[in-house]
Specification:
- This protein has about 120 residues and is α/β, with parallel strands linked by helices.
- The protein has one domain: Glutaredoxin, CATH 3.40.30.10.
- It contains four helices and five strands, in the order E-H-E-H-E-H-E-E-H.
- The chain has a five-stranded mixed β-sheet with strand order 1-3-2-4-5, with helices on both faces.
- Helix 2 links the parallel strand 2 and strand 3.
């Protein structure tokens, strides 16, 4: 499996329950934030990783990527709060609010098109 999840490369950062408000909600008021809710045991989470890496290398000026490992510490509370039903779930936050989400593995071009559709003009 690709080592994209740990450690997080320069195109992303990690968030946890205690700093989600700062790293996602507050940060999205300045620049959109794409949150990848993932789990280490989740094969589709590992499969989407290279696609996210590719898209973020192209779009890092428009959107930041923050990864949340749901099985780490109290992060599962975030999964419950946002009513996540499967992993990976990717959520786009803009101006402090969720703008869009999708679940499951997707190809790079699909993720890029989805982001372009939902990012502010």
């Amino acid at each position: 499996m690709p080592p994209f999840h740990k450690p997080c490369d320069p195109e992303c950062s990690e968030a946890h329950l205690h700093d989600f408000e700062e790293k996602v909600i507050q940060a999205s008021r300045n620049k959109p934030v794409l949150v990848d809710f993932w789990a280490d045991w989740c094969a589709p989470c590992h499969a989407i990783a290279p696609h996210l890496e590719r898209v973020m290398s192209e779009m890092s000026k428009q959107v930041d990527l923050v990864k949340v490992e749901v099985d780490e510490g109290e992060n599962m509370k975030l999964a419950g709060h946002y009513k996540l039903r499967g992993f990976p779930t990717l959520m786009l936050f803009v101006d402090g609010e969720e703008r869009a989400r999708f679940a499951g593995n997707r190809a790079s071009h699909w993720i890029r098109d989805w982001l372009e559709e939902h990012l502010p003009a």
